[in-house]
Amino acid sequence: MEQELKTEATRKLITKKAFQHFYKNGFKSTSVNEIMKATGLSKGAFYHNFKNKDELGVLVVKAELNTMIYNAMIAPLYAEGEAKTILQTTFLNKFQTFTSDEKLMGCPVNNLINEIGGSQNLLNKALKDLIDTWVNAVVNIIERGHKDGSIKPETNAQQAAIYLVSSFEGMRGIRKLYSDDLNWNSYKAALEDYINQL
After folding, report:
1. What's the confidence (pLDDT) of residue 6?
2. Closest by alpha carbon to 134, among 166, 102, 94, 181?
3. What is the rounded CA–CA span in Å between residue 138 and residue 186?
4. Given Cys at both, which of 15, 84, 107, 141 links 77, Cβ 3.0 to 4.6 Å?
5. Rounded distance between C-alpha atoms, residue 158 and residue 127, angstroms
6. Banded model confidence at residue 21, pLDDT cuts 50, 70, 90
7. What is the mean pLDDT of the chain?
8. What is the DSSP letter of 156?
9. How many angstroms separate the Cα of 173 from the Cα of each of 65, 137, 167?
């Protein structure tokens, strides 16, 4: 039992440090050596817990990124209340919470998709599963809006959900190019208008 706890703690430490390095430097540019140096553990500890960096990347997506997106953008969509208000609150309030560093570095999910998307491996599948979960949660809240009357019945839930998630992530990527919030704030206003007309 004690060994299992130690192994789990080691895996969590490696995963946490890997996430930080992947976010700051990119997945491909980060070496196993750099990750293990940050943990203070030996390289042997890495290979005792992971077959390769791709396997670690999958765990980073499933543990770190899933938790981050779920807490910020998915769980709030299942709150009680009027669907459109919940949708507005979830997407628009998130804009207020990004730090200057997060604006400049973009979304770690989006960064990873842009870096490794298109490859047919388990890391790509983990990212697709994460996005699908997010889109499905948005579909769910829009369909709730059909029922509570806050969203027009003719609004196509799947199309609107894809648009909301992809435009939000796209703007997070574009924001990295700028030193101010001018375009960021314009997008926020456009997003608010879009949700209002649903």
Report:
1. 73
2. 166
3. 22
4. 141
5. 19
6. very high
7. 92
8. -
9. 16, 22, 10
